Amino acid sequence: MSDSEPQLLHLHTLKASCASCSVLELCLPIGLTGVEVERLDTLIAQRVKVKKGAALYRTGDPLRSLYAVRLGFFKTSVLSVDGREQVTGFQMQGEMLGLDAISTDHYACNAIALEDSEVCPIPFSNLEKLARDLPSLQHNLNKLLSQEIVRDHDMLLMLGNMNADERLAGFLLNLSQRLNRRGYSSRDFVLRMSREAIGSYLGLRLETICRCIAHLREENLVDLQGRNVKILDLPGLRQKVTGCHRHTEL
Prior knowledge:
By secondary structure, the protein is an alpha+beta fold. It has helices spanning 34-41, 124-133, 135-161, 164-181, 195-202, 206-218, 234-241; strands spanning 9-11, 48-50, 55-57, 65-71, 73-79, 85-92, 96-97, 110-113, 117-123, 188-190, 222-225, 228-231.
């Protein structure tokens, strides 16, 4: 949790239970036995509720915990030398926050809640000790770190190979796939992030994002009204980005 603005966080001491969590099969315990899940469960003393707009942690805060997103949506971002925000990712249920802090013991970005959210903090020092005893847990942690590297590679591929329309199409397709894995509609969903944040993430200006939305509408691929997304032609959206990247989760 951020030391810089603790008043923004609303804490609740709740019984944390990995075994009964709705995103168990997407999170760190995936593939662990019941006994192993119980041992991991003992590390999570409480769940933390984070209000919309509040920081879970900020750049430079010391690493204490990794955070599994149980409910809600986050964005991660860094500030450039001249103070401009660069969005580096969007995280949803079942995904981990804080992995970037492992190399330096300090968080390398800001993690901001895009809606009222809830996370499970996993003290990193205790997690390391438990991972030494549970090879399956260490394997999962290694997979998470590898996925971060793959996401970085795919993001570079997107920025280097795709035009603006393709970047937005790939972004919407990626969200569609991730939401579908969590049991939500792959064709009808609500964006939790602003157009400005999407533009920052994709390396596009706001006016370019607006033009791209108009182009996708004209092609009858997507109907985007406000933050409500309806994918009208999912195969067509896939075809638009075929060959540009591997459709992995960015």
